[in-house]
Amino acid sequence: MERRHARRPREHARAAPARHLPPGAALAILADNGPDWIAVDLAVHEAGMTLVPLPGFFTPEQWRHALAAGAVEGMFCADPRHAALLGFGERAGATGALALHLGPRPAPTVPPGVQKVTFTSGTTAQPKGVCLGSAQQWELARVLAGELAALDIRRHLNLLPLAVLLENIAGAYTALLSGAATICLPLAQTGLRGAASFDPVLCLDTIARTRAESVILLPQMLQALVAAARAGDSRLHTLKFIAVGGARTPPALIEAAHAKGFPVYEGYGLSECGSVVSLNLPGQARHGSAGRPLPNRQVRIAADGEIEVGGGAMAGYLGGPAPAPDAWIGTGDLGRLDADGYLHVDGRKSNVLVTAYGRNVSPEWPETLLLGTGVAAQALVVGEARPFLAAAIVPAHPDLPDAAIAAAVAGVNRALPDYARIGAWFRSAPFGEADGTATANGRLRRAAARARCAPEIDRLYL
């Protein structure tokens, strides 16, 4: 069954949307994992069009933003209600179970030569679109296939959404170029539900049932799998390589995974560089690092400690200028290169949080909504490398009941995608200049505020 999944996209690659839309048109895809997703991706490649993957964990508002920003003219989806909700009515064909629905014909906004526009998980309600060329994506897949060739991986199981660039390129494309079978199952059958829920037992059983030899995980998924697995668990016996990325992985978790037989290797990357930048490999791994840069990547550390990446840069942000061919990409991460060239990532340069599920969230987004409810005088949202976001809330009135705050948090959560929702909260004393947790004008000093609240924050994650 899985081998058929690997070949089926090739059979569909020419059953493309070319007869319905002009060359260079932008098409979106909103669908669960499956062979038809890859078929559409390859078909759009071959037709010289631009694909805009829409993650299922986005809100309708974020979908609309991506569709408008990309001037999308058609959308592939399995559920016609999604097409109708987003203004795409006329059905104009199908690829497997995915129907192509046509929409308005806006003026093109995607620069020539861009094959894919990948939207980040959304640091705000309007995530940026990263423009990538076809050559850049396939070059990275070829490099990864070469780096992993000695492992002779024959069966890759997609555990992350294909709408996430890491799985799309490092998973599906790399397997395709390696001649490996790509096992594409609906996410509910592999254990991932939404952007912040995961069933490790189901995932382990699926790995065993499909005899998968490679998978890609987020740190929180790895943590759950390690907790659920037994030492020498037979369900892991077929695995040859587990890549973990999307957020920083605690070294202690890597150690615990190795102790239970997980062949796990940490990497580092970002959408602006096509996903993977560096990766630990068998025989070339250093504990606590994100591996050495790939052969097609250059990494340097700026004077302020920011990691910068050269080689294979994006074609720019949607609506922005194209970078120079020799441009270096500022990652927003702080790090260092050791004497042997291994990259060590130390943390975020900006306020943007990266959750344990690899989702990027600007804390100001939910904080602003909390302040807008009228129940919070101040709010501090935390969640770096954590499974969910939490908030320290300073009540607008000291005698405000907890029930009122809880109701306000619930209302805010309804306006947010699941990865940006507040999973827990606690009442906090005011942040101010006196203890260094805020400036004179009330702007939070985040590091100091987090340090003061550390005991309360840690208790929320026990």
Automatic annotation (TrEMBL):
Pfam families: AMP-binding, AMP-binding_C_3. One of its GO terms (molecular function) is ligase activity. Signal peptide: none annotated. It comes from the Bacteria. Residues 22-305 form the AMP-dependent synthetase/ligase domain. The keyword Ligase applies. Keywords: Ligase. Gene3D superfamilies: N-terminal domain of ligase-like (3.40.50.12780). PANTHER family: LONG-CHAIN-FATTY-ACID--COA LIGASE (PTHR43767). This is AMP-dependent synthetase/ligase domain-containing protein.
